[in-house]
What we know:
By secondary structure, the protein is of the alpha+beta class. The chain contains twelve helices and 13 strands. Strands 4-5-12-7-10-13 form a six-stranded antiparallel β-sheet, with helices on one face. It has a four-stranded antiparallel β-sheet with strand order 6-11-8-9, with no helix packed on it. Helix 4 (211-221) packs antiparallel against helix 5, helix 6 (255-269) crosses helix 7 and helix 6 (255-269) packs across helix 8. It is elongated and about 115 Å long.
Amino acid sequence: MSNFIIILLQASINSANGIFCLWLWDGKGAIYFAKREKPLNGWPKGNILMVILAEAERSIRSKSRDGKKTEARSTKKQRRKISEMEIRKNMAKVKEYHQETGSGGGLAFYFCGWQKCAPGHAFGPAVRPHHLFHLVLSGRGFYERAGKRQEIGPGQGFLILPGESTYYGADCADPWEYCWIGFGGAEAEAILRECGFGEDNLIYEDRSGGLLGREMMGLVDSFGRMDVNGYMLLGRLYLCLSHMVSKQPPKGVAAQEYVGRALDFIHNNFGYDMGVAEIARTVGIHRTYLYRIFMEQLGQSPKEYLTEVRLEKAAEMLGGTGLSVTEIALSCGFREVSLFDRHFRGRYGCAPLKYRRMAAGCPARPLDC
């Protein structure tokens, strides 16, 4: 048996954890590192340096005897390591998070994700049980439904309807990077109509100036937070959809849609200091056009309708609450009590206090008038 030469290059011991470290040379160009942790019952009897040197000699002899076998194992291990690195690299190109949360019958968030697709990567044909929206951040791909294929590029998105079979995939030369959100709930269809989607129009053109993409990626990244919760996810989902809602209804929608929006806004905000200009701006049309469609469908102007709603609510409060006339006037959007009194007399033919006493079945007093 050939002799082994073991040369000690350096030795050190860590007083904090008791680890004894050696750097050894086998005389053939290979340098070895060995360490030994201090046992619970202390160091073994004898010279600890000699004990570890003996262990190092056995290790070197073993490596010399099984050199080829060790090299084969090392090569296999290296291949496995490279394979694992590839898997981690590919995993880093896709993120998807699931957490179902709803708003009591309103909008429900199911999941979201992001992916940098490989060339030619595709999914489907398959059916989804919910609404699923994809926004393309870069690259290109295709979207196919009902036998019709459409090319999709950056700044575009596509909507998958519940129960509908679809097929989509990345371009082979310029594969897309996209993010997505899965959602549902009773409000989903109405919100999507406001976003401009319809049965025959499921392709989206982003006009948010990049806000939609940032908000969708913010939704994905929120899962990295320790304090992520259902309210946060729903809030971000609503923000994403808010960037998609169009001020202008889809082509072909009748003027009733504008009037309906205006009426909803008035009934929910009559108590605030607002005018026709703000109503028109909220609906998304010019105030002149708002006036015209109000006259056509309601027979009165937006201002007259707003005043009527305020007065009806004031009359209801006079008969059903103990609030003062000033409190009621301010609560119904009248900034001055004198203005409220004048409009109320013109609508009901009496002063607010007289109306209250009459509503309560009490005789009117001279001061009420």
